[in-house]
Structure formats: C-alpha cells, structure tokens
Amino acid sequence: MGLFKDSKLITDPLADNNPITIQVLGICSALAITAELEASIVMSIAVLFVLGVGNVVVSLMRNIIPSKIRIIVQLIVVATLVIIVDLVLKAFAYELSKTLSVFVGLIITNCIIMGRFEAFALANGPWKSFLDGIGNSLGYAVILIIVGFFRELLGSGTLLGIPVLGDPIEKTGVYAYGYENNGFMLLAPMALITVGIIIWVQRNRNTALIEDH
Amino acid sequence: MEKRTDKNSYTIVFAIIMVIVVGAILAFLASSLKPNIDENKRLEKQQNILYAMGVNDNDEKSVAMVSTDRVAAEFEKYITKQIVIEGENITEDDAAYMIDLKKETAKAKDASYTRRLPLFIGEKDGKTYYIIPMRGKGLWDAVWGYIALDENLVSQGVFFDHKGETPGLGANINQRFFMDDFTGEHILDESGNFAGIAISKSNADPKNERKTDNTVDAIAGATITGDGLAAMIRKDLRMYMPYLQTIKK
Fold first, then answer.
1. Looking at chain B, which residue has its C-alpha nearest residue A88?
2. Number of structural domains, chain B?
C-alpha cells in the first residue's frame, strides 16, 4: 500500500527529522510568536495549510521551473498563496483575517516553507510532497506548541489566556506562596533556550542524532 | 546536453508568463473583492468607535464588538453628531468617520495644509462622549485607536488595534486587560495642563488605582509598542486640545 510506504514522510518530521530541532528551519518564527499558546496554534494551522498546498503546487511545476530562478519562483508561489487566502478572508471572514493578518508576513518568510519546496517538492511527486508538507508542518507545530506551553505558563501563569496558577495581583493560588511569573520567559531569548533544551533532551534520548565531528 | 529548462530564453519566457499569470490572478481577485473588503472596513470603523464609548457586547473578559448586522443602526442611534475641525472652522459631516488619518498625516507635512480633524459626539444614558481617532507607529507597523472623553477630559474608554505587532506581546494592546486600564484615566495633569496618557513599566500600580497620574501599566515584553501608543495618544490628542478646551467643564 502506497499509504503505508509513505507514512514515514509524516512520522519522520515529528521526531527524528524535525524541521526545527534537527533541520534547524523556521527558528525565527518559533522565537517570535511562542509567547502565547494560542498564537502558536494559529501559526501552526496556517503553516500546515500553506506548506501542504504550496508543496503540491511546486511539485506539479517541478519539471517546468527553470533552475536558475527556482528560488524566486518558489517565493512567488508561497506569496501568491498567502495573499489569496488573506484577500478571501478579508472579504468573507473579516474577524478571522484580523487574527491572522500579523502572521501573513511571518508565513511568507518562514524558511521551513522555502526549505521543503527546495529540498523535497522540487524532486518528488505531488502526493509525496503533500505528505511531506503535512509532516513537516506537524513537526513544526509540535515544537511550537511545546515552547508556547512553557513560555505562557511560566511567563504569564496562563494557558490559552486562562489563568491556571492563580491571580498574580490578588496573590491567590501559587502566588500566595511567593511564586512570581518569570517575565524573561516572554522574551525571545528564553524561546531560544527552550528550543535548545528540547534539542538537548531529544539528542540525549536518541544519540544517533548527534553528528560526528 | 543542456536541459531545456536551463536555457536563458526559456528562463526569461517562463518568468514573463509567471508574472503575467500571477499578476492577473491577484489583480482580478483584489478588484473583485474590493467592495466587500471596503464595506467590512467601514463597519469595523463604526464598531470601533462604538466600542470606545462603551457600546459593545463584552462579557467579563472578551472583546466583542456589536455585530455587523446591528452596527449601522447602533451607530445611528448613539453617535449624535460628527464634526470636522479645520483650524478655527468646525463643520458637521456625517461621513467624518471615513476620513483617512494616514492620508491626513501625509498631507499635513505640507505646512500650508490645514489638517482635517474628525471628532464624533456620542450620547449614552444621558452622558456625552467625545470620541477622537488616533493613529501612530508601534514596533513593526501602524497602531491606531479611538479614545472616548467626557466633559472633564477624563477617558471613558478606548479601543486600540494594530497591523503587525508581535503576537502574544505587542499584539495584546487590543485585549481587555490593557484597554480597560485606560477607563477613568485623566489626560490633564493636576494643574490642568495637557499630559496625555503614558504607558509605564515602573509605575508600581499594576491594578491602575491611581487615575490622575496620567499613566497606565505597560505590557511586559512590549515596551516599544507601548511607547509608540503613548506617543500616538500625546501627539493626536494635543491637536484636539484647542477644541477640547472649549467643551471642558
């Protein structure tokens, strides 16, 4: 069955070939928007859509794209897709488009998208490319959600905007025992450190991932 | 043998066709959807103005505008007068809310141009609100908003929004925990001079109990967005001060 043969395309990027922790793609957006869990989830869904569709489009065009300008062509494909979605949402789902508008620029410049177009879609058929796109965006989503979870919990004491540790101003919940939110968690350097810890844990569990030098 | 797709002539033809096709698709979509988008933006302006004066569907935590199917009627009902201030001249204009602040700012760079300042007067439960639109710069892109003042020039509510502030940090200026702090805040200092509303990281007043200090608590991690917002409030309200002095009680 083709589906079983290709299922590694989905499962590999979730762990052993994760776009963020192994391929080191998409770090910029992973640092920028993970201060809240909700933003992480929205970004993950947006990338899932753009990478899935974009990979298919680039894959369909792979035999006609001139190699000299292939990066520009890929950039045009992703930018066009994102702008079309943005326009349609603005016309028919204005509220949703306002939530997503800040992510538009981040999606176009997300190097996971260019990276997968270049590394996979240009060399493989549409179905495989679609699976690769879905797999890699899920791998991206996993890391984004883990980082977003810890940054929001430790930085603001909330999850999805709901206070889970008590009220820091009224001093209820764990704040009554002298606990304080760590405002540093909200800043980009702590996202980098959190990603670093995930990479450390992952390579400790699977030493085959450590490169020889 | 050289591949067909490596030839210069092929590359150029491909590029030309791609640009034309993509350009045509985007131009067609943009112009055919423009009426819908413009209408959405117009309703959004009405919603935001009403939000600032406290006409909204908020529950305890959410930011909920009056729904789009009701907004035109509510706007008609609550906004009793819209005026445009041009220097000394004050004219009534029922489309004042459609004045584009970005274009006005650009035109005002020419010193001979008298800037048109829109102001909306709302009535709710016997109280009069003077609602002023504002526009400025955040960290990445534009920020804008509306502030509703009463006759004592005390803020009765605000609405802020932004184009591209960082999600989770600066983007939170349109959340309740931040906007609600502005309610009751004075824009004049104790001696009656214009002060605006500053956004501070270190005012040691996280619950914002001091309403006369012209300061609200900032959002952690969003210093530059906050500074931009405070600069916007100061700069844009100052332009209205000559008019506001005449209504002040």
1. B33
2. 1
